[in-house]
Amino acid sequence: MSMLERRRTAWAYLSRVAEGPCAPLLQLIESVGVLEAARAVRGWDLPEVLRRRTAARRHLDTAERDLELVGRMGGRLVTPEDNDWPAWRMLAFGRARAEGRPERGDGSPRDREFAAPLALWTLGSAPLSELTERAVAVVGTRAPSPYGEHAAGEIVGGLAGRGWTIVSGAALGVDGAAHRAALASGGRTIAVLACGIDQAYPAQHARLLSDIAREGLVVSEYPPGVTPARHRFLTRNRLVAALSDAVVVVEAGRRSGARNTAGWARRLSRPSLAVPGSIASVTSVGCHRMIRDGEARLVTSADDVIAEAGPLTLPVTAELAIARPTDELRGDSLAVYDALPAVGSRGPRELSEASGVALVDVRSVLPQLETAGFVGRDEVGWFRMLSH
Amino acid sequence: MSMLERRRTAWAYLSRVAEGPCAPLLQLIESVGVLEAARAVRGWDLPEVLRRRTAARRHLDTAERDLELVGRMGGRLVTPEDNDWPAWRMLAFGRARAEGRPERGDGSPRDREFAAPLALWTLGSAPLSELTERAVAVVGTRAPSPYGEHAAGEIVGGLAGRGWTIVSGAALGVDGAAHRAALASGGRTIAVLACGIDQAYPAQHARLLSDIAREGLVVSEYPPGVTPARHRFLTRNRLVAALSDAVVVVEAGRRSGARNTAGWARRLSRPSLAVPGSIASVTSVGCHRMIRDGEARLVTSADDVIAEAGPLTLPVTAELAIARPTDELRGDSLAVYDALPAVGSRGPRELSEASGVALVDVRSVLPQLETAGFVGRDEVGWFRMLSH
Question: Whole-angstrom Cα distance, residue A250 to residue B278?
Fold first, then answer.
């Protein structure tokens, strides 16, 4: 077995034994590497918090079999070491170290939740990082009205036609309508599952899921065989938001999971958007409430969504790639960089106010500045890299 | 002619010769009284700004005839000297003095617009001040969809059923639907016209207007005989907003006069609200844009509207009426009063933040504190009366 294979097998093993998200495990891998982390789990050579998180499954060493099964299905395991790992998408989770910090890194559910996935099992041939470069999540109730299905189709059609990938949860209702509309427009779409990618769930969407795998990607942080469960729908929602530039809720009842996804979007500093509808429709109640309570911005079209999600590729990118000194920064990049304090961090909204650059542009400039090494990100927001 | 009659005749004369709103005339009346102001206009004994504003019509001394005509129709002229003048509704315009201040009191249209009406010609027997105690403006496009008509009916029905007066502009479409729904619910309604109250405009609403005059009020700042004109629709919109606790736009196209009314609401510190609808409907485009741009809050029901418009009668009222010393203030009134600076003024939003009292409650407490003599209002906001 090559070193590459050994490492991937270690990721697969850890993905099986510690149910994601698992911040303490991310922290361990960051400090000792994935091979040593896998050895430590196998050998029970672990801090208490990780013993608790791995006790039930550490004997399940099905890694090679899982990789083989998924390979036969035409899928693979994408790890943070792979080129197509959507690394900058995960920045919003902060660093594993920050997540696992002693005072709160006690493995409490709340702390566990807000962490990047360990690795992602995917079905399909498209590279994940490329597919998520410009991506919008379109989600909603499992029982939409004809209006909701139509609205999902309209907005998705406009987004897909302009090159945006549609991310959703493959659920019945709005999710399914969004995936189908993306496929029908010849666009790309990603289904993020709350179960293993070998599970056809919901069963009515078996055909749809195989279409998605052919044209886009089916993604899960759970290894093959894992069945859907309530808590997995919630952590799945976090991934839907994390892989997207914005979350659009098309229709949602008073208590809809879509609202949970929108909540993740806000926590991850992505725009949370909602489509209005008739005041007489129960399937618009959740959207209207989100808009009314300031939890989502109203959108009526793909154009509205794009205005919020923002273009990811600004002319400044090429420039950043070749020139590091800040005196070569121009336009929005310079304004945003200059708005960063000499010491400490600032959030995008503050940076927008301080720089006069529109929030949507601030949000697209920052990851580019990060990639180019000008800025870093912590829990509070963004900071200047000391070298500049 | 009694002194009372002489004074009312002076108001009627001024209402005819200076087209409202006319801040310099308000200022003149405030400083010399209405009789002397009328004499000054007749005698052309005026500052330049008022000469310009009265030159065309000062010979039109039709006051007695106007009062007689309107009296025969069952109407009258309500002046700021009358008990049923909605005085505190007009506070938001600021004082005439502030409006007519030298550096901007040059009679420019912008300056003219933002002033209280001189007096109001009314048709109907209900007292204006009582009718506007709890009032919501419901406005919208002249060509609503069936959905818009239905939504207007639903919201107006809920408001009227709970004792709120419906204010609108008697135009075709949403305005008419709002008036009709108010009448159908046994509620009270006010039609604010952009022409004299003797003009049945639009002609299709002649019957509706006479129904409104019987059950509520038809109101105009223009004397009898004045015909509708474009600029009068805009100043009329300002009165619709001024007589209401909030403005609800039910349906509006891209360029709708309803948006102008909502703009007045914001300028007058009233909540500006809009009803969502289908993203495919051209008659909801204006509402969606207002919500999206933060110009209006989304509302879906009478309950939503009432939550924004706020109850005007708080338990604290009775207490305020009998007790002046601030140490007898309690609850929200005390918190808001305490949030006022020792020197200078503060707006409702700042007061809400400083006091922790909801904005909607701050807005209803302040006029009560004003009535009770605890606070005053200037251009910036509200201030402590020195005696306390």
Answer: 12
